[in-house]
Design brief:
The protein is an alpha+beta fold. It is built from eight helices and 17 strands. Helix content is 25%, strand content 28%. It holds the Pfam family Tail_P2_I.
């Protein structure tokens, strides 16, 4: 029998009316069923209301599937303010990272940065999503300040670092908006290329094969280091070609899908090299070391943040003896189309796919063989 919400002096008629109009017998089964319905298999029409009830609305940009949001968002709420919450949130958008907090001796001790597990896929929307997760997940006293992967140069911290191992400024990276976090990424692209006779002739470095005979007089410097009279003709020939190429000013050209130059980046390292297990440079998993007697040439260029941003590179090539058109800018690092004189044209063109952006420095490494 249903309990009557009647005073003790209720009459039998009052009790009869109470039983007649009591909805409990009809509604109780539905009410009992609703108690677990939102937890087991809520219908789609309930989901926006459940997101509101659980306070998960701020996570909807990062977990668009509301079923996943309700299931995982509640767990995230329970650990919010801990590193585990940040790890869970980054996992939703396909990233992972390690937290680096500022040392307590620093004035901005509440800042932290993320060492991400990979380079971002896109700047929009990926970086906004990472920033959002890194802002919502930590304690209120913490501030997300920087994300990086690959390219990470730190500022000089007096009495804690060597001058030669730091920048005389802030951390490496760029901000996409005022007051936003810094982003610092780097990708590496390797090219192992054997130059053809036509390419070597174009840059004035071709020497006819000796056929096993000694190297005779030719258009190469006889001060070429490492060439001894006891060397075989072919060894001397390759060393002479490598020394010739390594002594030149080189820019790396970035070319788009329409065979138009996006821009040129000055090579930061050009060396004759030889194979060495612990060499300073690595290309396609093989290590090389600078060597005056080397038979190959290592060329490396590192684009700056924002160089050619928004363009897609379809090929890279080399410009030998290149020089800025404007004589007042002899040290030009990045040259746009028409800003560089390329007397030998472009050689060693190699297909590649690179989407240039504001936050990534692209490291392009060549091994040139003859």
């Amino acid at each position: 029998m249903s309990a009557h919400l009647l005073p003790p002096n209720a009459t039998e008629l009052d009790k009869a009316f109470s039983l007649t109009f009591d909805p409990a017998p009809e509604l109780t089964p539905a009410i009992d069923a609703m108690r677990g319905a939102k937890l087991v298999a809520p219908p789609p029409s309930w989901l926006p209301w459940l997101v509101y009830e659980y306070g998960l609305g701020e996570l909807t940009p990062y977990v668009p599937n509301l079923y996943d949001l309700i299931r995982e968002g509640i767990d995230w709420q329970r650990i919010r303010g801990t590193p585990a919450a940040l790890a869970m949130g980054l996992g939703w958008i396909g990233y992972a990272g390690d937290i680096e907090e500022w040392p307590t001796r620093r004035r901005a001790w509440s800042r932290f940065q993320l060492r991400l597990d990979r380079v971002r896929d896109t700047e929009d929307p990926d970086l906004d999503r990472i920033e959002g997760i890194a802002t919502l997940s930590p304690p209120l006293r913490s501030r997300f300040w920087r994300g990086f992967h690959g390219y990470d140069v730190r500022p000089l911290d007096w009495s804690w670092q060597r001058w030669s191992g730091a920048r005389w400024a802030s951390f490496s990276g760029v901000r996409l908006r005022e007051g936003g976090p810094k982003w610092s990424f780097e990708r590496t692209h390797d090219v192992d290329r054997t130059l053809t006779q036509g390419e070597l002739e174009a840059v004035g470095a071709w020497i006819e094969p000796t056929g096993g005979a000694s190297l005779s007089w030719g258009p190469f410097p006889w001060t070429t280091p490492g060439i001894a009279w006891t060397d075989s003709g072919e060894e001397a020939r390759r060393r002479a070609i490598a020394a010739n190429l390594a002594a030149r000013d080189i820019y790396v050209a970035l070319i788009d899908g329409n065979d138009q130059v996006i821009g040129y980046r000055r090579a930061r390292a050009v060396h004759a090299v030889s194979l060495e297990a612990a060499g300073a440079y690595e290309v396609d998993g093989v290590r090389w070391s600078p060597d005056a007697e080397g038979k190959a040439v290592y060329v490396e260029a590192l684009t700056g943040f924002g160089d050619g941003a928004g363009s897609t590179v379809a090929a890279v090539a080399l410009a030998f003896d290149a020089a800025p058109v404007d004589p007042a800018r002899p040290g030009l690092l990045w040259a746009g189309p028409g800003e560089l004189s390329t007397p030998t044209g472009l050689v060693a063109e190699t297909p590649i796919a690179i989407a240039l952006g504001e936050t990534v420095r692209e490291r392009i490494r060549f091994i040139l063989r003859s």
